[in-house]
Amino acid sequence: MKNVALRAAAFCAVAFAAVLACLMPAAAAQPIRLVVDVSQAPSQNIVRTHETIPVRPGPLTLYYPKWIPGEHQPVGPIVNVADLTIRADGRTIPWRRNPLDMFAFETDVPKGVRSIDVHFTYLGATFGRYSSSRLATPNMLVITWNQNLLYPSTGTIQDTIFAPSIVLPGENWKYATALYDPRRDGNTVTFARTSLEHLVDSPLDSCVNFRQWVLWHGGGTDPGTVTLNACADVPSELDAKPATIDHFKALVREMLAMYGARHWHDYHFLLTLSDVIPGEGVEHHESSDDGEGGNYLIDPKALERGGDLLSHEFNHSWDGKYRMPAGLYPKNLQLPYDDSLLWVYEGMTQYYGDVMSFRDGIRKAKDWPDQIASFWAHYDNEPGRKWRSLGDTATSGPFIYQAPFGYGAERRGEDFYTEAALMWLRADSIIRARSHGTKSLDTFARAFFGQRNTGPIVVTYDRADVIAGLNAVVPYDWAGFFHKWIDDIAIHPPDGFTADGWKLVYTEKPSHWVKKNDFWYSLGFSAVHGSVGDVRFGSPAWKASLGIDTKLVAVDGRAYSDGLLYDALKEAHTSHAPIVLLVEHGNAYRTISIAYGGGPRYPHLQRIPGKPDVLDEVIKPRRKM
Ligand SMILES: [Zn+2]
């Protein structure tokens, strides 16, 4: 329980010239009363919203949030809004949707009316790959408030003030959120009034099977806690071993050791463990909406597979939330984003999400070089790099997350995550070399994203600020470096790993990251259970006319299996005979012959004798475990 008045004073006291906003509301503002009733979500997948909005008589436009922070796209799930009713003095007043802005509802407030009541139902139906596919299972629910509110068009995210509350399904339902000052009365929890910005930034998890671990707490003049709050469909999925929780404790220590300051008072990991609702990872200042499968905390393999989820989202509290590209911080939730700096926001977070998963011990150091190999090889074999720059993938953020899977290598996807992470690895290596090992990318991260404890505020930046920040760490042609990596169209990443003491090789041995049933680097296609999802243009499979949406039926006259194809690859390596596949496409069967004698092929990194191992330095914990 926090003292809101004191907290507001503390937040604003740390403001300095570059700070654009203080997330706490002005005390005098008249709030919008918001009641979100989730009592029917576990059984019927709907949520009911009731709002009382202070108004003046005359024309009024209400917005449904369109551009969603952290998702980088205009994916507010407007299609799921139903039963919209607006009442003034107990009488229903008509509304109409703006035909040129479908997220805007227009109405006329009658004379003498000071407030209106707005009701609508949110239909928890699946919508796209993001934003609304997670709502509830019979035992848990996830509320992201932007789905369950309207706000007046005259307001900004800072000066639109809400007094939020939630009606939970039952008294046995626990909850966790970063919202302040919760007061529970039966099934209803009321929170301190807060800005639209802070409300949308503070999702809420509620569930029957709940467990909380304290991962870190400050002390003395530096209070605050970090908690892991887990909701599970099955109680036994909460039986995490202490050693598992120790990894997350190490994560917090490592982050604080690197950044040296924080921008949250308390931080809440909101983790759902479910095989029913999809996984997730959406960042916020003082929490993250994290979703994994039911066995995440109890199966070491599952933990390792998703080993960068919490580290990635936690990193965003510094990189993405505290320091935010100016183009991602418009005054309301209707104005478009400029995603062109996502190679910093997401790319560097991808880098540190992975690096921290080794520093905190979830992943094993021996697996790090081959992870880098798998990333590098992926982009070496992505033909879309011949027509489209890495920067263009970031600029395309508003639609690229929704891209279909077919021909992803020709289209390019969200490469501003992992290809940009390779770029940041290269930048790390340059800083280490030019400073003779006295500095690293961590030095830049601390100076640019750490700075000093501030609470959850936003300080914006642009590309020139990033270049200046790097030059302050070590002078270098950083402008040219980014021009080469971000703006140029390059067939291969322009720099290898020689400086890090490693080189990329392909062998017939599968790796920890590229499994035996991955034929991308040999035949040139990817398939799941024999269904082809992508074919690399120009590859042996492409030349043999294999396309997407094709089912592999038989290999060399026998019913298809990945193992059989692997054997056929080895056989063809010595016989040099073509590999014959029977495939089904649409309602037609045909036989194709792939001329390929190169054998199985998987990427690895190999040490260069006599050169120091820089990669190993990168993932060394900064603090003793
Ligand atoms: Zn991210």
Can you tag this structure with a few keywords?
alpha+beta, nine-stranded mixed sheet, Pdz3 Domain, Immunoglobulin-like, six-stranded antiparallel sheet, 625 residues, 19 helices, disordered N terminus, single chain, binds zinc ion
Give the % helix: 25-40%
The main pleated sheet reads as: 9 strands, mixed
End-to-end distance: 31 Å
Which distinct ligands sit in these coordinates? zinc ion
Instruction: Give the beta-strand count.
Output: 33
CATH topology name of the domain at 4-202:
Immunoglobulin-like
**Which word captures the global form?**
globular
Beta-strand residue fraction: 25-35%
What is the CATH architecture term of the domain at 4-202?
Answer: Sandwich
Give Rg in angstroms: 26 Å
Structural class: alpha+beta
Question: Briefly, what CATH class of the domain at 4-202?
Answer: Mainly Beta
Q: For the residues shown, what is the average pLDDT?
A: 93
- The total count of helices amounts to 19
Query: Which spans have pLDDT < 50 for at least 5 consecutive residues?
Result: 1-27
Topology at a glance:
Blueprint: H1 4-13, E1 19-21, E2 32-37, H2 41-44, E3 46-54, E4 58-63, E5 81-88, E6 91-93, E7 95-98, E8 101-109, E9 115-123, E10 136-137, E11 140-143, E12 151-152, E13 161-167, E14 174-177, E15 183-185, E16 188-190, E17 194-195, H3 196-200, E18 204-207, E19 209-219, E20 222-232, H4 242-259, E21 267-273, E22 280-283, E23 287-292, H5 300-305, H6 309-315, E24 323-325, H7 342-345, H8 347-359, H9 368-380, H10 390-395, H11 397-400, H12 408-411, H13 415-434, H14 441-450, E25 458-461, H15 463-473, H16 478-487, E26 502-507, E27 525-528, E28 531-535, H17 540-543, E29 550-555, E30 558-559, H18 562-575, E31 579-585, E32 588-594, E33 602-607, H19 614-618
Parallel strand pairs: 2-13, 20-21, 21-23, 24-25
Antiparallel strand pairs: 1-25, 2-3, 3-9, 4-8, 4-12, 5-6, 5-9, 7-8, 10-11, 11-18, 13-16, 13-17, 14-18, 15-16, 19-20, 22-23, 26-33, 27-28, 28-29, 29-30, 29-31, 31-32
Helix pairs in contact: 6-8, 8-13, 14-15
The structure holds zinc ion (ZN).
Zinc ion (ZN) binds near residues 283, 312, 316, 346 and 349.
